[in-house]
């Protein structure tokens, strides 16, 4: 995908988000014909790393269809080795060159990390991955939590870009940090 095509891809995602939040979602490419068309081969044109939160479904909030987006979701959109391997696969083997890292408001994982929580078992791993995004002076109010979520999206995108650029044959992958507001439905770039 060329630089222009990537910009158009990002525009398409933001345009789909506008339809979604304004109540004009087209719910495109979800019919039986599309299902059959992509059954033997997928060709997603963008990848999304986002939170497992039940309210942050990329195909819905970007108003896309079957086979459009390669999606990786973990609590707090934490980039662990499996998430990284999945995205490397998307870049290397599926030719995806636009990756959106999407944080969101009122994220439970970020809220817990800002509040200084320590997790049981592997939950602690999730919290530890978010901590670098928290400012020392951060309080537990909503603005501080959302600021940490934005910063976490930015840091994650940075780490991901560094990791996949060497994996990509062309070294030409755009990773875009962004933030989704649960209340307004709007995705903004960070
Ligand atoms: Zn979340």
Notable traits:
5 strands; 190 residues; alpha/beta
Order of helices and strands: HHEHEHEHHHEE
> Could you say how many structural domains there are in total?
1
Gyration radius, rounded:
17 Å
Number of helical elements: 7
Average pLDDT, rounded to a whole number, is 93
**CATH architecture level-2 label:** 3-Layer(aba) Sandwich
| Structural class category | alpha/beta
Summarize the structure.
By secondary structure, the protein is of the alpha/beta class. It is built from seven helices and five strands; from the N terminus they run H-H-E-H-E-H-E-H-H-H-E-E.
Walkthrough of the structure:
The chain is an alpha/beta fold and 190 residues long. It has a single domain (3-27, 42-189), classed as 3-Layer(aba) Sandwich (Beta-carbonic Anhydrase, Chain A). 44% of the residues lie in helices and 15% in strands. It has seven helices and five strands, in the order ααβαβαβαααββ. The mean pLDDT is 93. The protein binds zinc ion (ZN). Zinc ion (ZN) is lined by residues 51, 53, 76, 104, 107-109.
What is the element layout, followed by pairings?
Elements: H1 3-21, H2 32-38, E1 46-51, H3 58-61, E2 69-74, H4 81-93, E3 98-104, H5 108-114, H6 123-130, H7 142-167, E4 174-180, E5 187-189
The structure holds zinc ion (ZN).
């Amino acid at each position: 995908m060329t630089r222009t095509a990537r910009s158009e891809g990002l525009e398409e995602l933001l345009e789909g988000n506008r339809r979604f939040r304004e109540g004009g979602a087209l719910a495109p490419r979800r019919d039986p014909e599309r299902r059959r068309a992509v059954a033997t081969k997928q060709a997603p044109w963008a990848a999304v790393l986002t939170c497992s939160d039940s309210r942050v479904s990329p195909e819905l909030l970007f108003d896309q269809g079957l086979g459009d987006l390669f999606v990786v979701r973990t609590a707090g959109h934490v980039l662990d080795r499996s998430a990284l391997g999945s995205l490397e696969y998307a870049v290397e083997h599926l030719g995806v060159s636009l990756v959106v890292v999407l944080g969101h408001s009122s994220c439970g994982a970020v809220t817990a990390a800002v509040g200084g929580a320590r997790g049981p078992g592997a939950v602690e791993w999730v919290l530890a991955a978010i901590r670098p995004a928290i400012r020392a002076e951060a309080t537990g109010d909503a603005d501080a939590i959302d600021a940490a979520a934005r910063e976490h999206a930015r840091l994650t995108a940075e780490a991901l870009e560094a990791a996949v650029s060497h994996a990509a044959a062309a070294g030409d992958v755009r990773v875009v940090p962004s933030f989704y507001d649960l209340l307004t439905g709007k995705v903004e770039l960070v």
